[in-house]
């Protein structure tokens, strides 16, 4: 009878467990591999459940008749609990009785005292580690450290230009960026747009006319994705976003210059509306 209940209970528990663990991993597809703390939690839970199952199993196991053998489990139980067996409770019964309620003079179970000692030892370790030797990192120190690491990562990201898109890009006007843009232009674009931007196969950059829109955002976009059907390739595989920003800013600086043989205007006159024209405006990118 007990064994049957035990078996049914185990099955139910196993099914529940599988569902739980499955869920824990399925839920966080975005944060795979699973968080370290999630793993610890699952393992702890498994241990608790295994211990619980063990407890039920051993409690229900029939002691062989005749032999007065004490199981290892019972010994362990006694070691941890020091509980007085039922038949000897008389010995530790207090004299008083209130409306039939009696009280036993039970000892504090050793596991509890042990736990108490552990907390004291931990407190000492904690105190010495975090406040005397200062070898451990307090929460705000960890926080500061993480913030510093994040700041470095952010700076790296900004420098790599990965955050630069046609939505966020701004026109650069400093000499260093324009010189860098000029070099990129000379190396990649002169064949079709002429060294002075006057235009050859590609359109003239010195006039106010743009086929795909002027302004840094449109120009960035045209360079990034290109117009493959019209002979202007996409440059995003060869130039990183920062380089595209530089060359686009350089192209914009050509406006109003006089090329040797300007190509006739193509597209429409572009009027800047809400463009950022200087880099300084753009601190809160
Ligand atoms: C193989 C020739 C070729 C090369 C190389 C080339 N382009 Fe172009 N580009 C074109 C053509 C052709 C167009 C016109 C596309 C159209 O008609 O839609 C164009 C258009 C553009 C436009 C849009 C102009 C407008 O009026 O809207 C920009 C900006 C541009 N190119 C920038 C660049 C930059 C920057 C480079 C170098 C990194 C470059 N191009 C290299 C052929 C080229």
Please provide a written account of the structure.
The protein has helices spanning 2-27, 36-60, 72-81, 110-132, 139-160, 175-188, 190-193, 215-225, 241-253; strands at residues 93-98, 101-104, 209-210, 268-269. The chain has 285 residues and is mainly alpha-helical. Among the domains are: 1-62; 175-282, Orthogonal Bundle (Cytochrome Bc1 Complex, Chain D, domain 2), CATH 1.10.760.10. The strands form 2 sheets. The chain has a two-stranded antiparallel ribbon with strand order 1-2. A two-stranded antiparallel ribbon has the order 3-4. The longest helix is centred in the N-terminal third of the chain and has 26 residues, at 2-27. The protein is elongated. 14% of the residues are buried. It binds heme C. Heme C (HEC) binds at residues 188-189, 191-193, 201-203, 210-212, 219, 222-223, 227, 230-232, 235, 247, 251, 266-267.
Task: Give the SSE layout.
Blueprint: H1 2-27, H2 36-60, H3 72-81, E1 93-98, E2 101-104, H4 110-132, H5 139-160, H6 175-188, H7 190-193, E3 209-210, H8 215-225, H9 241-253, E4 268-269
Antiparallel strand pairs: 1-2, 3-4
The structure holds heme C.
